[in-house]
C-alpha cells in the first residue's frame, strides 16, 4: 500500500482496505502500535502511549505516524501486547 503525502499509516491502511487495530486516533491509547521494521516516520503529534524505550526499540503508533520513506511495519494485537509486561511470568 502507498501513503499519500501527509497521510498517516492508519489512514493509508484504511484507504487500502487493510485492517490495523486502532482506538483513540490521537496517539494516547496504544491500540495501533506497530513495529517499524524498515523506514522512517514522523509524528503529527506526540506518541503519548509509547515510552521512550518503546520508541528506541522501533515501535510506532500508526494513527499519528506519517511515513517519510518507504516503510515496512508489523501490526496487530500481538505487537501492542509486547509493550505490556506480564506480572505473572
TrEMBL record:
<dbReference type="InterPro" id="IPR012675">
    <property type="entry name" value="Beta-grasp_dom_sf"/>
</dbReference>
<keyword id="KW-0001">2Fe-2S</keyword>
<dbReference type="InterPro" id="IPR006058">
    <property type="entry name" value="2Fe2S_fd_BS"/>
</dbReference>
<dbReference type="GO" id="GO:0051537">
    <property type="term" value="F:2 iron, 2 sulfur cluster binding"/>
</dbReference>
<dbReference type="InterPro" id="IPR036010">
    <property type="entry name" value="2Fe-2S_ferredoxin-like_sf"/>
</dbReference>
<comment type="similarity">
    <text>Belongs to the 2Fe2S plant-type ferredoxin family.</text>
</comment>
<keyword id="KW-0479">Metal-binding</keyword>
<protein>
    <submittedName>
        <fullName>2Fe-2S iron-sulfur cluster-binding protein</fullName>
    </submittedName>
</protein>
<keyword id="KW-0411">Iron-sulfur</keyword>
<keyword id="KW-0249">Electron transport</keyword>
<dbReference type="Pfam" id="PF00111">
    <property type="entry name" value="Fer2"/>
</dbReference>
<keyword id="KW-0813">Transport</keyword>
<dbReference type="GO" id="GO:0046872">
    <property type="term" value="F:metal ion binding"/>
</dbReference>
<keyword id="KW-0408">Iron</keyword>
<dbReference type="InterPro" id="IPR001041">
    <property type="entry name" value="2Fe-2S_ferredoxin-type"/>
</dbReference>
<feature type="domain" description="2Fe-2S ferredoxin-type">
    <location>
        <begin position="1"/>
        <end position="79"/>
    </location>
</feature>
Amino acid at each position: 500500500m502507498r501513503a499519500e503525502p501527509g497521510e498517516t499509516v492508519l489512514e493509508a491502511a484504511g484507504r487500502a482496505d487493510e485492517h490495523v487495530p486502532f482506538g483513540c486516533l490521537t496517539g494516547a491509547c496504544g491500540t495501533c502500535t506497530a513495529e517499524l521494521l524498515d523506514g522512517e516516520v514522523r509524528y503529527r503529534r506526540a506518541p503519548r502511549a509509547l515510552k521512550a524505550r518503546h520508541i528506541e526499540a522501533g515501535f510506532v503508533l500508526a494513527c499519528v505516524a506519517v511515513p517519510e520513506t518507504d516503510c515496512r511495519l508489523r501490526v496487530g494485537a500481538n505487537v501492542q501486547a509486547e509493550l505490556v509486561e506480564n506480572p505473572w511470568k
